[in-house]
Design brief:
Length: 374
């Protein structure tokens, strides 16, 4: 364009067009990168919402651990304690997976040479009060763990992902570094399973396998309490991970889930349906056909992170955290329904009868009778 047998003026015009084309390309690229930044921001906002949804159920159950009657007498609720213990275990499991994914984000940003100090002029990580980020560790970067007391039980409080400001990342378009960390720098069909980033896949599968077990354990504990108080036989449900990583469509996935959880659905329909919903939300096809038909099936990690800009890779990781937080919130919401409203004391009980305002002669009508406590 700016070479060959051309006059100096033509060469100059050609060079200007070349520079203009390059600038336009950069602008398109910047728009795309900014879009990924906005997507990641929206995912983070959604993650906060899902975190708060689960926290609401957690707090409600914590408030039912001990009830106080009108005389000031305190009564502990064994049911609330059993459910609250299970909720704590779910939060521990979720925090473990959330923090692992945060570690992969940090490793990617470290590889890019970004300034990860929260006190930097343009900080990438925005910490909450009391959080301390170990951003310089090249093996296990992340929040320095702290232990808090909830209902007398030690738990890891950092279930919420670390807040990020991706617009402050300087190398938004880099992709070699994240592909190396995800283990797909050499093959997107057969990623390196020992790569630190690839382990995200295994961590998600581990969460999918363990979360329903914690839910079933809580239900079984409540059944035991009920049987002990009534002197009846204990009814329990058993969970076994069907390890579903391949399906044609959502219809086939539902069919496989119905078959896998048939026993639980038969014994406890509500529990079975909840586990089915959570399991479905955490399930992906491990192998995906190459849309271009150039190679064999691609691993989900390869398909998702192949040549993805750094900000897109981080947004994808935040998406996985969103799945974890949604599953957590759904599990905590279900468990919260298993706890009653607590112990109450009344000093007046009356019977009330309600009838329609008018009735014709010889016409039949029905009274509605209700017991009301004050």
């Amino acid at each position: 364009m700016a070479g060959g047998k051309e006059t100096p003026r033509q060469k100059m015009i050609g060079m200007m067009y070349l520079v203009l084309t390059a600038l336009l390309a950069l602008n398109v690229s910047k728009s795309i990168l900014d879009a990924f930044v906005n997507i990641e921001e929206n995912i983070q906002v959604g993650n906060i919402t899902e975190y708060d949804r689960g926290l609401k159920e957690f707090t409600k159950t914590q408030g039912k651990l001990v009830s106080v009657d009108s005389t000031g007498t305190k009564t502990e609720s064994p049911r609330a304690k059993a459910v609250f213990t299970a909720m704590n275990e779910i939060d521990k499991l979720t925090a473990e997976k959330i923090q692992f994914i945060d570690k992969i984000k940090l490793l990617i940003l470290q590889a890019l040479g970004e300034d990860l100090n929260p006190k930097a002029e343009k900080p990438i990580f925005i910490l909450e009060p009391g959080q301390d980020l170990n951003f310089s560790d090249t093996k296990k970067p992340g929040l320095k763990k702290d232990v808090a007391k909830r209902g007398g039980i030690d738990v890891v409080p950092y279930v919420k992902p670390i807040r990020m400001a991706l617009h402050n990342v300087s190398k938004k378009d880099a992709y070699d570094e994240q592909m190396l960390i995800m283990g797909i720098n050499e093959s997107i069909e057969q990623p390196k399973k020992d790569a630190e980033g690839f382990k995200v896949w295994n961590e998600m599968l581990d969460y999918r396998a363990k979360l329903p077990v914690l839910m079933c354990n809580a239900v079984n504990e409540l059944s035991k309490l009920k049987a002990d108080s009534a002197g009846a036989e204990i009814s329990t449900v058993e969970y076994k991970d069907p390890k579903i990583n391949e399906y044609k469509d959502i219809t086939e996935l539902n069919t496989k889930l119905d078959k896998a959880f048939a026993d639980i659905l038969k014994k406890d329909l509500n529990l079975g349906e909840e586990i089915k919903k959570i399991y479905s939300g955490l399930t992906k096809n491990e192998k995906i056909p190459d849309p271009n038909g150039e190679t064999g099936p691609l691993h989900w990690i390869g398909m998702t992170f192949d040549h993805a800009p750094a900000v897109a890779a981080i947004a994808a990781l935040s998406g996985l955290q969103s799945e974890l937080l949604t599953a957590r919130a759904d599990a905590l919401t279900y468990l919260g329904t298993l706890v009653g409203g607590g112990t109450y004391s009344f000093n007046t009980v009356e019977g009330k009868a309600f009838v329609r305002p008018s009735a014709a002669a010889q016409q039949k009508y029905t009274y509605e009778v209700m017991m009301i406590a004050f």
